């Protein structure tokens, strides 16, 4: 395993982390007696395999259902100093609720402390305010830190780059969990801001949210040759030293294997990535047109600035991925979250676009004349059954 300094925490962080979203039994709390033996056995085998490989950062959340409770059966069997344990708790209007939820996490994990506590989901102004206002959740987290129950405090986010940077610039957090990978690089400015504040940088779900790369389309496989799309994406992320660790979201012990192929490639990352990056860009230009590829995102309105809060940047991005790389299933899954995932994936679909006057909100876009048509096309291509976030399923 390779390790990187996790910002000012000074933790020796493995470049791969064992994220805890996919191996638990259920997305809600259930009694221990209801956990099937096979499920618990698989979870414990997954954690043991990770630790054997040097992947000693175990990451979970209060919102991940039975995950914490199931981890509580295995984590205390390791020497405590061998592990870096992170859990996350949603910010609440009532900071006492935040504290109760954290104490529940600690009981479930059967630990005296966690190394990393993330305020989970600073996605919009309300969640930021609930976190950093005087007497808010951050103040509670700092009291828990003073009591020895938390070593370092960070935040996780699905918010806009501006919201992430605003949170980073408070200089109150030791690390950040955020989205950034090959198909979605919009948060690079936030990573640079985190580096300027010497914060740890943890990439959320690069294999799933980065394109469902555990089941890639044949076109993407061909474009990423000789690497698998998953290894390509890992190498792309880790070739940037500003990134410290990637969450693997392992569901079974074998899920680490493909990712491990990345480690021996890092020394020659630039040489290996260069032809793949060129092919991916060439294919995007061939299918979408060079002018569109280079300028589609320029001066687009946010969903808040758009009638019916249609999320134009996200919809056009998903259309691009479906056309250029055959990431249709991924694009459909993400598109159908719109309108169903609150501030975790905000804004709405383009199902009513034919009734809307978008002239004003698109007035600064170089593609204003054709975007309404492309939005309608995207809806036709991507619409299906509404999708809920995993934790709501």
Structure description:
The longest helix is centred in the C-terminal third of the chain and has 20 residues. Helix 3 crosses helix 5, helix 13 packs antiparallel against helix 14 and helix 13 packs across helix 15. The strands form two sheets. The protein has an eight-stranded parallel β-barrel with strand order 3-4-5-6-7-8-9-10, surrounded by five helices. It has a two-stranded antiparallel ribbon with strand order 1-2. The chain has 393 residues and is of the alpha/beta class. The mean pLDDT is 95. It folds into two domains: 265 residues, Alpha-Beta Barrel (TIM Barrel); 104 residues, no CATH class. It starts with a strand and ends in an 11-residue tail after the last helix. GO terms for molecular function: oxidoreductase activity. This is Aldo/keto reductase. InterPro entries: AKR, AKR2_Oxidoreductase, NAD(P)_OxRdtase_dom_sf, NADP_OxRdtase_dom.
